[in-house]
Amino acid sequence: MTRQPGPEAPRTLLRPTRPATRSAGRRHLTALLALLALLPALLVLTAPGARAADRDPAVSLSKKEAGKGGEITVSGSGWRPDALLMLLICGRSTPERGVIGGTNSCANADGRAVTTDKKGAFRKKLPVTEPPEPCPCVVHVATVTGEQALVDAEFTVAGHPTADLPRQSGDGRLAVLATTRLEGDSSLLTWFGAPPARRLVLTVGNLGSAPVKDPVFEIGTAHGVYAPQWEERQWRGTVAPGGKARIELPVELSAGAHGDYQVSLRYGDKVLAEQPWGVGRPWGVTLFWVLLCLVVPAAVFRIGMAIVDRVRPRPAGAHRMRRPAAPRTAPTSTDTTTSTSTTTAVLPWFTPDSAPSENRPRPTTKGQA
Asked: What number is the average pLDDT over the span 25-52?
């Protein structure tokens, strides 16, 4: 039997749809991959603190000028969330050059502290006081703990004297040429809590075209997560253009300090060097307190026992006890004669004539023969 071919399926209708389906699937897959690639960026942009972290810290003042006894409102944004900030009015300062002289040029007693919110913003009222240095003045806002950040906003204290800022030393620029180090040893007094002291030694070079005369450095000491506390140290000398100099600056901590410290050196607004410093514990103070805790209780115990021994009741008849008397013997004639002569010699109111005697004749009475 011969098999009759049946009607063929319309294959031409299915072939054109396959390329179209594949191309559509590829487009959808490409769009999905692109969306997945952009998803982390979208999450970062929409995070609550993302915008605050990307922006630089900023400060604005409610008034640009106010007199002593007034009050201004300081607002800020772009700071680190939950950061502790310090607000001060400082003299001899500009936003371009910063606070010349450090916080010694600020009214520290009338400063204020504020903590930023979750978005890195804050708002705080600050009393207007006269700084110890003449104007130009700024409102100095700086972090107290964590990463160092600061902003200076221009401000004028009405009625406060003004003076020109000290001239900058041309185009002189200092840079550290060698590794910094701390020199010096601790004394016996440091073992008993005296302030640890070292010398920060470094070699700097002048990369500018003008000499740098008597540069003023700032040395900061930081312990743990706290921001460094800066103190001015002036070096006497001149660093010629293209020259170098060996600089030694004293570094001192507070009494009883111990642990890991970080010493930083800053010139202008640039940190030149950082050096770790491990300070040993003052075991002499610990030994002193241990001895004090042992000696004082022992002395109190001895005094208490002496008092108890004084006031405690005595047993009956104890105070009437006397030493036993020596046994008496019958006196002899020699002893009697010696005793009589001794008594006669010792008692001056008896004379030999009036002294009683057994051998003296008795007087006779009238009528006797």
From this structure: 49
Within 10 Å of residue 157's Cβ, how many Cβ atoms? 23
CA dihedral 66, 68, 72, 75 (to 10 degrees): 100
> Could you give the 3-state DSSP secondary structure of residue 60?
strand
Report which of 71, 65, 73, 77 is spatially closest to residue 137, judged by C-alpha positions. 65
* Mean pLDDT (whole number) for 187-209: 84
Q: What number of CA atoms fall less than 13 Å from residue 154's CA on the CB side?
A: 5
Cα→Cα distances 7→3, 15, 28, 132, Å: 13, 18, 38, 107
Instruction: Give the lowest-confidence range in 158-162, 269-273, 304-308, 337-341.
Output: 337-341
Whether the CB-CB separation of 232 and 217 falls below 8 Å is answered with yes
pLDDT tens column, 131-153: 999 999 999 999 887 777 889 99
Contact 154, 98 (CB under 8 A): no
Strands (E), the chain: 58-61, 65-67, 71-77, 84-90, 93-94, 98-99, 112-115, 122-127, 137-143, 150-158, 174-176, 181-183, 197-206, 212-213, 216-223, 229-234, 238-239, 244-252, 259-267, 270-279
pLDDT per residue over 244-265, tens digit each?
899 999 998 888 788 888 899 9
Percent over 90 (pLDDT), the chain:
24
Gap between the Cα atoms of 226 and 245, Å rounded: 32
Round to whole Å and give the CA distance between 351 and 329: 30
pLDDT: is 314 or 364 the higher one? 314
